[in-house]
Predict the 3D structure of the following.
Amino acid sequence: MKQYDALIVGAGYAGAVTARRLAEDGNKKVLVLERRSHVGGNAYDCPDSAGILIHQYGPHIFHTNDRRVFDYLSRFTNWRRYQHRVIANLPRDNPEAIPPHKKTDGRMFFPVPFNLDSMRNAFGEEEGERLGRKLLDAYPAQSQVTILELRQNPDPEISAIADYVYEHVFVHYTMKQWGQTPEEIDPNTTARVPVRLSRDDRYFQDAYQGMPLEGYTPMFERMLDHPNITVELNTDALKRLELADGVIKLDGQAFDGPMIYTGQADELFGFRFGPLPYRTLEFGFETLPRDVYQTHGTVNYTVDQPYTRITEFKHLTGQELPGVTTIMKEYSRAYTGAGGEIPYYAIINPDNNALYAKYADLAAQYPNLRLLGRLAEYKYYNMDAIAARALALTDELL
Ligand code: FAD
Ligand code: UDP
């Protein structure tokens, strides 16, 4: 058997960045095992049967403030300039009050994150303007405030704004996404989408934002295209690995080089302490015979509908293909571990973190094993955070 210096399980961001760095900067022979039939992990994209470039595992928009991450990835892709903007689509509270020429099927729209313009859409021009000023006065040194923080404000008018935003943006969406209220989930999760004390309607405010010009998959293919890297697709690493008494065996032989594992920590150890809880998603793809379906890349259904959001890929990718478009609806539910289900979101809370810590302690008994990535670390990481962690880990290993 060919000798490898390093073993990597998974070919998503965590696996691909570490593989490239070890191969290129460390001159290590690297074996990457990937269970799926493709590289890229959950960032994988591909054309659908209508020729529309879609994201198979949910909409991915790249954004970062980390210059090193942006520069590193830019070696493997050019970027399409794209700033993601999202609107909420929800039923009007009082559709009868709208003059007939302004009626939009009883629905209303405003920018998400909720900002000073959303305030005017919600409360009317004058009242929205006044309340916006009041908010600015209440938080003079801040550019944004989280919904949970806003709800603590004792001022009755600000508390009424907080109630409005909670009801019209957060509580129903969060119930759909997590099966729990905003108070019950990790506060960092709703803090990802704050109330903006400005008119900035971009979903992300990072310095570097965009979409890989030809898609994510070609970026990953280039990253993994190196003479020192061997990628084996359709390969479940767990079928070839044995972990016992601090020793890792690959295909029955002890492997003492670094092994970077980017899959689920509980699965690596046979669910010994019980399964880690996750949320999974179902994606409803629809290809429609029209140029455009919606005004924005993503529309959040913050109050009604069984799905959380609809994404139309052409907005993200800039693809021009007349007469056809593909949209995707996201439905969230508890992950059961049934075959074919994908664990998309770790459910961060003290109990689950404690369970994860048992797996992390077990992993620490294997000196050459490193857990890296959104699954392996049981964290809610964006793509750039994983790339940054992969760069830091390989700095250490090199
Ligand atoms: P993954 O991408 O999950 O890769 C892990 C890989 O390991 C997978 O390919 C898996 O098949 C493989 N694997 C697991 N076990 C085994 C095994 N036993 N043998 C072989 N292979 C194995 N981030 C952003 O920055 N912007 C976004 O807009 C964004 N949108 C998102 C939307 C959704 C719906 C979701 C779920 C996530 C989104 N993210 C986004 C987060 C992003 O997907 C992750 O940060 C990133 O994919 C993490 O990379 P990873 O390598 O840790 O994990
Ligand atoms: N959220 C919400 N309403 C929205 C958008 C987000 O309640 O319109 C909450 C919800 O709890 C969600 C979290 O904020 O899970 C983070 O949203 P984000 O869009 O960052 O989620 P992701 O894209 O990672 O699924």
Observations:
- The chain has a mean pLDDT of 97.
- The longest strand covers residues 278-288.
- Residues 156-178 form the longest helix (23 residues).
